[in-house]
Amino acid sequence: MLRFTFVGDSMTIGSAGEHTWRHRMWQHLRATGTDCAFVGPRTALHGGGHAYADPDFPQAHLAGWGEGWLHMAPAIADAVTEFRSDVLLISLGLIDLGFYTNAEQTAANVRRFVTEARTANPALRMVVLPVIPNIRAETDAPFAAQVAHFNTLLAKTVADLDEPRSPLLLASVPESYDIHTDTYDGTHPNASGEHKLASAFADALHQAWGIGGPYRAPLTAVRSPVG
C-alpha cells in the first residue's frame, strides 16, 4: 500500500463546502484500483469540517490556509516520520511569493523541505506542482515576474535534487487551466479546477512511475459550491 501525503496551502486544504482536488485524486486512485492510503497530521477543511458525499474519503493531509514552503519545511520530517509517507503530492509557493519570500528565497526553502523530508524517509517520492495561474499574477506585473522566475528555479531545483532512490518529479499545470473558468475567485479552484489539479498529479504519477492510470474525470467548468 502506498501512503500519500498532500502538502499544500489554501488550494489544497480547501474550505467548507468544497470537495478539494484531494477528493478528486482519491476518486481517481480508487477508480484505477490503486492500493493506497492518505495520511497526515490534519483532517479539517479551512473554516470547519465537511460531510463528504462518500464518508469513506480519507481526509488526512498536511495543508494549511496561508502556509507555504517556509512553513512546511520545518514540519515535513515529523509528518513523514509519524505517518510513514511514501509519496508527497506538493502544491506550494503562491503564499511564499505573495507574503514572505522572493523567488530565490522560496527556492532555497524548497531545497530545505526536500532535505528534511528525506531525513525521515530516504526513499521518499515527491511530485511538485509549479505555482499555478492566479489573479494577482494577472494584475501585478512584478509579482507575475517573481512567479515566473520561481517556477524556473523550481524546475532547476527539482532536476538538481532528483535522485534514483528518492525521485523528485515536477508536474505540469494543464494548458487549459484558466483562472476565469477553473476558479471561483481567481485563485482557488472550483470543480473543474479541482479536476485539473488532480489530473496534473495523476498524470505525473502514471507517466513517471506507473501509479494509477490516465486521469479520466470530466474537465467541465462547473463551479463548486462554497460556504
Write the layout of secondary structure elements.
Blueprint: E1 2-8, H1 10-13, H2 21-31, E2 36-38, E3 62-63, H3 69-72, H4 76-83, E4 87-91, H5 94-100, H6 103-120, E5 125-129, H7 135-139, H8 141-161, E6 168-170, H9 191-209
Parallel strand pairs: 1-2, 1-3, 1-4, 4-5, 5-6
How many beta-strand segments?
A: 6
Shape designation: globular
Reported CATH architecture: 3-Layer(aba) Sandwich
Number of helices: 9
Beginning-to-end CA distance, first to last residue? 35 Å
N-to-C SSE string, H for helix and E for strand:
EHHEEHHEHHEHHEH
User: Looking at CATH, which topology would you report?
Assistant: Rossmann fold
Mean pLDDT: 92
Seen as an oligomer or otherwise, the chain set is single chain
Strand content: 5-15%
The helix content, as a percent range, equals: 40-55%
CATH superfamily: SGNH hydrolase
Name of the level-1 CATH class:
Alpha Beta
Q: Report the major sheet.
A: 6 strands, parallel
**Which class best fits the helix and strand makeup?**
alpha/beta
Low-confidence stretches: 219-227
**Rg calculated over all Cα atoms:** 16 Å
- Whole-number count of domains: 1
